[in-house]
Amino acid sequence: VTDARLLTRVLTDPAASGALDAAGWTALIGQARGEMLIGTLAHRLAGLPMPGAVAAILEAARDAAEEGRARALWEAEMARRALVPLGCRVVLLKGTAFVAAGLDAGRGRSIGDLDILVPQEALDAVEAALLAAGWEWVKPDPYDDAYYRQWMHELPPLIHRERDRMIDVHHTILPPTARITPDASLLLADAVPLGNGLATLMPEDMVIHAAAHLFADGDLSGGLRNLWDIDRLCREFAEAQDDFYLSLIEKSCEHGLLRETMRALRLAKHLFGTPVKAYGGPLRARFDDYRSDALYRRRLLARDGWGRATRPVTRFGFYVRSHAIRMPPALLARHLWIKWRRG
Amino acid sequence: MRHQFAVRIGPVGFRIGSDWRAPITALRDLYADYPPPRDGIADFAVRLEAKRVWRRFVRPSVEIAGDYMLPDAAPLPLRHGLLAAEMGMNLQMALGQRRYLLLHAATVERDGRALVMTGESGAGKSTLAALLSARGWRLMGDEFALLDPATGLIHAFPRLVSLKNAAIGVVERALPTARFGPLMAATPKGDIRHMVPGLAAVTAMETPAIPALLLFPRFGFAAAERGVGAGEAFVRLTQASTNYTSLRERGFDALTRFVTTVPMAAIDYPDTDTGLAMVEHLWASL
Description:
Chain A is α/β, with parallel strands linked by helices. Chain A has helices at 5-12, 22-34, 38-45, 52-83, 94-100, 123-132, 142-151, 184-189, 203-215, 223-240, 244-254, 258-272, 293-300, 312-326, 329-341, and strands at residues 90-92, 114-117, 135-137, 158-160, 166-170, 192-193, 198-200. Chain A has 15 helices and seven strands.
């Protein structure tokens, strides 16, 4: 097994697992663990015939995902108690938002840190409230701290001293140094209240944020899971809302993220069969492959049956790209120089 | 991967992949009597990798990777490759096992009943278990006791017994016919030599046992014995379990049942002969 096609194929069409032999199952499980999609796979295959050894592994994976879900929701509740008295909008992002809103994308999903979005003008108050409630700085390094505060779209990461869980406090969804600057006030204004003082992004913005995270920030690590999120979100939202894709495209233009959103939809369609809808009017939206999509797929699928990261050259290319798109060259040079000097 | 080996230890299947031949040859040899994973599908993968391609050849150093990893695990030199494999397997259990409550303990069995010995590194768990296996007990494991939350039974996990420093000579003398792995000198944990559990331990490894006695042994102190309350045992076992919190309510219930039904004692012993006599005496007076 040379790439994660096996995993994308079985996630898309669980019945395809019926043809797997022992080596196939082993590779599938290795890839799913490597891409942090094992809980998702376990939910997709629940109830289908499979060898006893696989059933036991997937049962454990569902249990782990359920534990992760409970922990994520508890962490959100802890943040809620600390922040609601401030009266500012607090928006859950990514995995925690998916499980808090009961979305299909949250089923079996592994969830790491708690990510929240707050208004930039509330940052100081949020920071003070979190510190008072038991969160502490992870990186006490003055350069890193100053770097985060001046150039990043989030506070330096905080960790809770008793629960040992991280919180990332964002004031927008991309670094201010990136070429694209989404409209954070619009994200906050359109957010959907959960009824307990917290909120999630509106459906379109959830997809756009996932696309921005995938293609305008970072080196595509964990990209397959992000793309799976996009597939699940789109399927669920398009079911509930006619012309969801039209509204999604429109919204992505407002945030300057049309290119990233379209790429996400094309790749999701290609790898997960997302039923995207093409339009001829009022605007033209096509989902035919771009030539560069193949390169992105090459990176997204770079995982072998032992769970190892493969294709080091492609990975390095995207790593370099992640820095290039995040900051202008002079700032990047200065940053790398300082980082290199400190080893 | 270039070289690979798959094995089942108790109820758990492993596959070990390696960039080098040597650790796999050693594993094949020492685990020769063990069956393959159930259905041919391993629960966990361990990878022994060279960090850079050239480090396969130049000062080869083994990075321990796998399904579950620690972010800053120190690599080991290739001559300690077998230790790296064993550490990798233990790590998968510690971080990934969710079917059984893991207790950091050595276990031996007699007449279907298990003696579980827990304690910090250096307490003499592995040594006592190995020596008891020479006296008619079945070795169930020297690292993890697998407590099944559904049944309250202990399942065997008879991986290679990891003997350290002075314990190596003691066990070699007590079990002259046992098979041993290579002596690995000056590892981060001192000198290490693995002992292969006897064939009896492997053929019976599917058979669980009813926990009958829990001991907290401590080596290097004047002989003493004291009772242990359920509360103390509970707290010490939560500290001796890597997955107690992740099992949540199942873990709490299993552990509560364990400490409220199994007799317990703490023993200090100055030397292994005294320790063995104390264990046998406690067992006889159950």
